[in-house]
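Blinded run. Sample ID left blank on purpose so nobody reads anything into the name before looking at the predicted structure. Input follows.
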Amino acid sequence: MLVLIEKYLERKDRVHLFTYEKPEYMGDLDGKIHFEKLPSFYPRMARRPKLFFKATLMPLLLCWLKTIFLFRRTKIIVVDQEGLLTAYKIFPRQLHRFNYISFEIFVAKEMSNPQQLEIKQEELSLLQKGLNSLLIQDQYRHALFMEENQGCQFKLVNFLPVAPVLSKQNNPIYSPVKTPAEKKTIIYSGSILPWAGILDILQELQSNWHPNYQLVVHYRFPEIENPIVEKIKNLASTGLPVTLVVQKIDYVNYYDFLKQFDAGFATYIPNPKSAKGMDGKNFEIIGLASGKFNAQMMLGIPTLTTDNEIFRILKEKYNFGYVMQSFHDIRQGLDILEKEEGLMRKEAKQLYKEVLNPEL
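Blinded prediction complete.
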């Protein structure tokens, strides 16, 4: 998303970003983007009058007013289900100018909540009326999107991996992590939740871990309590080879933080019974929608992944790391990474250069 914003700014376009709260830090984008208060509609409007007036009505009236004077000839970019439904409330007569960016794919058969199904139907009815374009990561995710949104219409369909742009600056490592000098490091950075595989990784840490590797877990929400974070702290206190980093790192410095590590994880566990509609098939074919995998390829970090059709296809051409059939393969995967690290670093960067680079 940031790549697209930067490209619009390079063209001297005026960018208005609708969001509930302005991000604390936007790096080089600070001062270049016009932030608009996003009216709260999703998944439902507030019922209490005071909250409705503040969170929904006033931001909506301000948006309508600006529509008359500022947004009459505007490219409208909507992100996923929430973005589409909210934007339609603001621009109900401009649906044909909507450009839909898909990061998550919501599968109706995996939903058990009647409210979620109703929202899904609202989304589908808008998609069937016809939008200007769809931006999605690859042909596999496009096929799933069309399957789950039958009858949707787009004038244009474009593919773009969820990948950062390689910085030309050679910055020093950001926030170096202290780990045993005699050990290599493997980073797990991202959601500390069961669907991301962290519990399975911790189980292997306790039972069958590679003796030459230190696991580093990065948790970016220090303000949010997480029982898995407490579990990691307890494991570290017993002497197991795990280091916990609890730190909010902005996107500008994040890649300079990642590049200090010898290997990385990009793991996903599909769960079609989660009832959310986005934890099953959406993760099953995560592919080029994995920002974690793509960023590690950009930095040349050999990566252990869970089994995924796109990862398997990429592995046939680029020796970027190891595709695990189960989490029990972690030790074997690390053994291979240790032996072939130099080649894998080169192949990972080549994969990014030839397939993932959003500037291709």
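Unblinding after everyone has recorded impressions. The mean pLDDT is 90.
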